[in-house]
Amino acid sequence: GRSTVTQLVEVYDDIVNSVASGKEVDVLYLDLAKAFDKVPHNNLLLLKLQLHGITGPLLLWMKSYLSEPKQRVVLEGASSDWLS
Questions:
Q1: Beta-sheet pairing, 74-75 with 78-79
Q2: 59, 35, 68, 55 alpha-carbon torsion, rounded to 10°
Q3: In 4, 43, 44, 46, which residue has its Cα 20 to 30 A from 20's Cα atom?
Q4: How many helices (H) and strands (E) does the chain have?
Q5: pLDDT digits (tens, 9 = 90+) for 51-63
Q6: φ and ψ at residue 23, rounded to 5 degrees
Q7: pTM above the 0.70 mark?
Q8: For 12-23, what is each residue's pLDDT tens digit?
Q9: Using an 8 Å Cβ cutoff, are 39 and 45 in contact?
Q10: Long-range contacts made by residues 47-52, C-beta under 8 angstroms, separation at least 24?
């Protein structure tokens, strides 16, 4: 698969090229967070991960993230605040 950054660059390039050639561009943004929140992570997703060989610290990290999602950006020693 391609990285998120690569996909974003390709979409941006497609939009810029379309606008430059006078084409109309429509964009639809979807928020799938609510749908994702409805998946029974502890039962279904974690079990499927285990069945595909994900175990140990990686499985525990996934379980932690799915039960209490937090994220931040760390770049060259600087860190953003945690977001939940």
A1: antiparallel
A2: 0
A3: 4
A4: 4, 2
A5: 999 999 989 988 8
A6: -85, 155
A7: no
A8: 999 999 999 999
A9: yes
A10: none
